[in-house]
Design goal:
Blueprint lengths: L25 E3 L13 E8 L5 E8 L10 E5 L7 H7 L4 E3 L10 E3 L9 E5 L9 E2 L7 E2 H18 L8 E6 L3 H16 L8 E7 L5 H14 L5 H11 L11 H13 L17 H10 L8 H12 L2 H6 L19 E2 L6 H7 L5 E7 L7 H10 L3 E11 L2 E10 L5 E7 L6 H4 L1 H12 L5
Parallel strand pairs: 4-7, 4-10, 9-12, 10-11, 11-13, 13-16
Antiparallel strand pairs: 1-2, 2-3, 3-7, 3-8, 5-6, 14-15, 15-16
Pfam families: Peptidase_S10 (PF00450)
GO molecular function: acyltransferase activity, transferring groups other than amino-acyl groups; serine-type carboxypeptidase activity
InterPro entries: AB_hydrolase_fold (IPR029058), Peptidase_S10 (IPR001563)
């Protein structure tokens, strides 16, 4: 899920007398809902960041199931802002997924055959503060923005590597989907500058991976109109009228421009019931009244709304036994939400193209992938900012395949020396690709990290 507005502030009850002692991540052998011992090494815990470590970042670490001593390490952000690491852990690229055939007291867990941890060490983080199980010791600590996210993430990485020195030489990659594109570029630049200055601990940064990323919020929103036209959601006459009357600007509309306002209202009414996350899937609204019946609904079949299915993680994470298994500190979070939409958060980086342009001069590899059925952040916007980087073309547009079928298209750009930016579209996927096309996304990531052609 992605929203790029500044969210409203809600009061959060803070317990001042909790024992806020530093605690390294603790190993987890079993999880409620999964039968038997976990067949992978999992840790969960908190790392304190900010002044006086007032912000406590909850995270999950999964060792690679292949060769953790040498496999790359990928720090993965979830979008929102405010969507939890557990969302990626269960619904994107983590080692487990939730069984739709829900029954009993708690959702059942099963192995994800396309989990990226089969070949990567992965850190999933609840960022920014207030997301998932992350919390602040003080009320003031809950005020956050993009700049602070970057600072907290950098501090988090430094402390994580101090706690995990054996992974210090593993290649480090940073990535995430959707809104987190606005912080990934600035963070990668900060980590790379620290690497070049030989700051300790040395973060062995080698590249970044971003999925349907928000990078230029103006174009992300403006190009939805062109996308809707190209996907036959709106008629040609309306698109041409909007272009003329709005002068190509569909974001900052002048209220005095009545023709543009009228066209935009017509456009908005037409797409009103389109699922922007995946335009071919049902449009769904999840309300508190619906939630009581979700547990039965999730068994109804694949045509069911994903938003209903996602509610299962809230049921799971709010179970007392689950919280004990994850080593959640008592009294820090009354209720878990997969996506917390009431953060005291401000978007202060509306356009970070310059950061990604700077990174074309670094010794880094880059993977940027999008989905062709995603209208939340259209692939057209991603292609626009990539083109603006003025890189030379290394390999022209072509199809890539999984099981002998076209899985999407790719184009590769040369950055510096033997470093490249690989652009990939995933055919038939929504926002974000690994949620909708897990098999194809797994093959894509496996090939890219193997330095073979996607």
């Amino acid at each position: 899920m992605s929203w790029t507005c500044s969210c409203v502030l809600v009061l959060i009850f803070v317990l001042p007398f909790l024992p806020f002692l530093a605690s390294p991540a603790s190993p987890i052998k079993n999880l409620p809902g999964y039968d038997g011992v976990l067949p992978f090494n999992l840790q969960a815990g908190y790392i304190g960041v900010g002044e006086g470590e007032e912000v406590q970042i909850f995270h999950l670490f999964v060792e690679s199931q292949r060769n953790p001593n040498i496999d790359p390490l990928l720090l993965w952000f979830v979008g929102g802002p405010g969507c939890s690491a557990l969302s990626a852990f269960f619904f994107e690229n983590g080692p487990l997924r939730m069984d739709r055939n829900y029954g009993g007291d708690i959702p059942k867990l099963e192995l994800n055959p396309y989990g990226w941890t089969q070949r990567l060490n992965m850190i999933y983080v609840d960022m920014p503060v207030g997301t998932g199980f992350s919390y602040s010791k003080t009320q003031q600590g809950y005020y956050s923005n993009d700049t602070q996210w970057v600072e907290h993430a950098y501090s988090f990485l430094q402390k994580w590597f101090i706690d995990h020195p054996k992974f210090g030489s593993n290649p480090l990659y940073i990535g995430g989907g959707s809104y987190s594109g606005l912080v990934t570029g600035p963070l990668v630049q900060k980590v790379y500058e620290g690497y070049m200055a030989r700051h300790k601990p040395l973060l062995n940064i080698k590249g970044y991976v971003i999925a349907s990323p928000s990078v230029d919020t103006y174009h992300d929103n403006n190009m939805k109109v062109l996308y809707a036209y190209q996907m036959s959601l709106i008629p040609e006459y309306l698109y041409e009228s909007m272009k003329e009357n709005c002068d190509g600007n569909f974001v900052n509309i002048d209220p005095e421009n009545t023709k543009c306002v009228s066209d935009f209202e017509a456009y908005s009414e037409i797409i009103r019931y389109i699922n922007s996350q995946q335009i071919l899937e049902p449009f769904c609204v999840t309300t508190p009244a619906l939630k009581q019946g979700i547990i039965q609904l999730v068994q109804d079949g694949p045509e069911l709304c994903r938003s209903y299915y996602h509610i299962l993680v809230n049921t799971w994470a709010n179970d007392e036994n689950v919280r004990k298994a994850l080593h959640i500190r008592e009294g820090t979070k009354e209720e878990f939400f997969r996506c917390n939409k009431t953060l005291a958060y401000t978007t202060d980086k509306l356009n970070v193209v310059e950061y990604y342009r700077n990174l074309t001069n670094a010794n880094l590899q880059a993977l940027v992938y999008t989905s062709d059925l995603d209208m939340a952040i259209p692939h057209l916007s991603t292609q626009h900012w990539i083109k603006s980087l003025n890189m030379s073309l290394h390999e022209k547009w072509r199809a890539w395949f999984v099981d002998g079928q076209v899985a999407g298209f790719t184009q590769i750009y040369k950055m510096k020396e033997d470093h490249y930016l690989t652009y990939v579209s995933v055919k038939g996927a929504g926002h974000v690709a690994q949620t909708f096309k897990p098999k194809e996304a797994y093959h894509m990531i496996d090939r890219w990290f193997s330095f073979s052609l996607i």
